[in-house]
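Dear colleague,

As promised, here are the two records you asked about, laid out in our usual form so they can be pasted straight into your sheet.

NAME FIELD: protein one
SEQUENCE, THEN STRUCTURE:
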Amino acid sequence: MTNAGASDARDRDPEGRARNARPRDGLGRPLPYGTEGVPRQPEGVARQPQQTVAEAQALLDAGKPFHAHEVFEDAWKSGPEEERTLWRGLAQLAVGLTHAARGNAVGGARLLRRGAGALADWEAGQGEDRPYGIDLAGIGRWARELAGRVESGEPVDAGDEAPRLRS
């Protein structure tokens, strides 16, 4: 038997799809209900590419790579098809940094390398190493180097390790 009161308390949008309104910390970890968390990025925002890069950089600099990943994810999902690999790769790097800062060395290193590979694939396919001023080669080097340090057990502070998207 279903408890109607319990289902009313669940985070759902008007169509009944799950929506997680639970507060989160700067690394996106869920906090107990009633706790003050870090404001989340609004989902599904279509930004201009330059705005995406600037907003994501500000979040990375603030030690909030999980939130930067959400900005990149919006660009990946709403941008032109030919740019999806670029934005997905940047989102993977932000999630890799998130996992590394949370202490998940295996997941962090894997996602950092996957994101670096996606950016290299995009650059190879497009012949452009600085779309929107983004330093793809430099970010790739940063990601591979950080992945090696993460695997060696070095602790990661997300704010201190934030990459410079533009050099």
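NAME FIELD: protein two
SEQUENCE, THEN STRUCTURE:
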Amino acid sequence: MKKFLLLTICLLPLSLFAQSSFTIRGFGKGFKDGDKIFLSYRQNGQIVDDSTLVNKATFEFKGSINTIVRGYLSRNNNPKYAEELFDSFSIYIEAGEIMLNSADTLSNSIISGTPSNNDYAELLKVLDPINKQIKKLDDTNKELKDTALLNLNKTKLEAAYYDTFPIQFNFIAKHPDSYVSLLTLGSMARSSKFLPQVEQSFTKLSTVLKERPEGKEITRRIIEGRKISIGMPAKDFIQNDINVKPIKLSSYKGRYVLVDFWASWCAPCRAENPNILNLYKQYNSKNFTVLSVSIDVDKTKWLNAIKQDKLPWMQVSDLKKENEAAKLYGVTTIPSNVLIDPDGKIIAKDIKGKDLRDMLASLLDSK
């Protein structure tokens, strides 16, 4: 029995036992004594939370880690309870001494000290001009009341966000062994708009990174993304509407139909609903409609969201944890959609905002 137990222990991954120490030291001229700094990260499937107080404009954390993970620091807002973090910064927790220096806020820190954080600092530096533009647009959005100006600003915000992609792809090509590259690519894989480029970039990563759980998740998203492509016939499905009446996608053949995947709890989905509503009102009389597929599991929340957003088109869901139609269409993140022509062919995928408005205008304004 003892020999069997010893053999079993020897066969376990060394990473379960190989703990390495890390230190995080931060300095900020704008920090006040008594400011509380929170640290949060995940290790071995568990969330680790820690906190410390600023003393003489500095703070420090010490701990042990058996891998590399991304963590988050926040100042005076506990991430477990706060709806919004007003001053926060992402870091990569790994063995060694991690240094943060700032002239004012935590979010403006310059990070250094370990390989991953040095890579991260390099990425932040090249992204800095666009990130400043994004922050300015985002701050303006919170103040705007005029719908037209808000929509224009959202279009600029989306364009600025996508401007970061070529920069990030270039960084990944130069750092194929960096964990920062893996997580950066994982974030971009959430947008199917760039999935072919994500797949190409993923091939350049080291085998070690590809085999990590984050790498396997990117592989899954790539595989799911291949299920649907522009030019192929739309895959038919049946789901119940709010009155439990079965609705078949193919029954919409002969019209342009936007199949929109969303959920009541998805903030970006709810933010896109007014745009879809305006287009529905504009083009519903010109052979265009919308079929929304919710991945909600709570019917009451689903119905309340439909009512709150005043959505007049057909709404369906199977109210399952994994919506069957979403699985059929390889949906890995929402909002997501496909635009289908009257012949039942997919002519666009994950098209939103100005891109969706422009495409419908080109198809239907002359009708």
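A couple of things worth noting about protein two: Confidence is low (pLDDT under 50) at residues 1-17. The longest helix spans residues 147-174.

Best,
R.
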